[in-house]
Amino acid sequence: MEKLGRELVDGVLHLEIDVPGKKNALTDTVRADLRQAVTEAQGDSGVAAILICGAGGGFCSGGDISAMTGEPEVARRRMDILHDVVRMLIAGRKPAVAAVCGPAFGAGLSLALCCDQVLADTTARFSASFGRVGLPPDLALTWTLPRRVGEGRARRILLSSRLVEAEEALAIGLVDDLVPLSELRRAAHERAVELASFTRESKGHVKALMSQAAGSLDDILAREMDAYIALLNSEEHRRARAQFLSRRR
User: Fold this and answer.
1) pTM of structure
2) Which of 20, 70, 156, 215 is such that its CA lies 20 to 30 A from the CA of 2?
3) Strand residue runs (E) in 36-105
4) CATH of the domain at 43
């Protein structure tokens, strides 16, 4: 059964994506629960930081391809839910840490890079796999990825959809630290506690200032949305989507 697990530990809200049949894809249920959880955390004085992880040996395989529709208004409503999450993780008051094991593909990669810190283990694999299904990057990846790895590397990752293994991800700055799988959750939790250790007002200002330092996040999200809607109805996407779904049967 798909769900978003929640556990508050020492002021850190652990959010675990658990969609076993779809490799932790961002289903409509998980999207809605993620927005609710992150929204509530922003206003909860008992939550000092957020930790996002995945169940079953994987972080997140990206969007739920089977639920995608060519109807523009439906697609915009689904994407708007995640855009709210993006804004709160990047510019909200609470620091966020991603703990990545296994695949972080497509929107899974985007979600991880919305966090202030990304910790991974050696099984982690990253791919901006949008092109494989005929869609553009989303969830501010065109904003977050160049800031982490530089524009040249970001262009190669985005245009090729190639796989980035854990060791390379560390070397190019895609992730902040590699730790053994057995220690990943503990290390990510400790990092979240560290980020939450100074005054909360200061954290909120730091995140807001950094989110504005390299252009408008809202402009990027709007442009990504327009590209997503345009390509969602393209023949290339329809073919790629049909091929993807046929392989899962």
Assistant:
1) 0.89
2) 70
3) 49-54, 96-100, 103-105
4) 3.90.226.10
β-pairing verdict for 125-127 and 177-178:
unpaired
The amino acid at residue 234 is S
Residues 6+ away with beta carbon under 8 Å from 37: 4, 6, 13, 15
CA 90, CA 87: separation in Å to the nearest integer?
5
Report yes or no on 240 lying in a domain: no
Residue 226, both tokens: 């327009």
For residue 150 the two structure tokens come to: 């530089």
User: Is residue 234 domain-resident?
Assistant: no
- Tell me the three state secondary structure of residue 236: helix
Res 240: pLDDT: 75
Asked, for residue 241, whether it belongs to a domain, the answer is no
Residues lower than pLDDT 70 in the chain: 198-205, 209, 212-215, 244, 248-249
Domains in the chain, number: 1
Residue 16: its H or E element: strand 12-18
Closest CA to 99 of 87, 108, 86, 90: 108
Provide the pLDDT for residue 72. 84
Residue type at position 242: A
Range of the domain at 142: 3-182+191-200
Query: Does 178 fall in a domain?
Result: yes
Residues 60, 66, 70, 72: is their CA dihedral positive or negative?
negative
CB count in 10 Å sphere of residue 215: 10
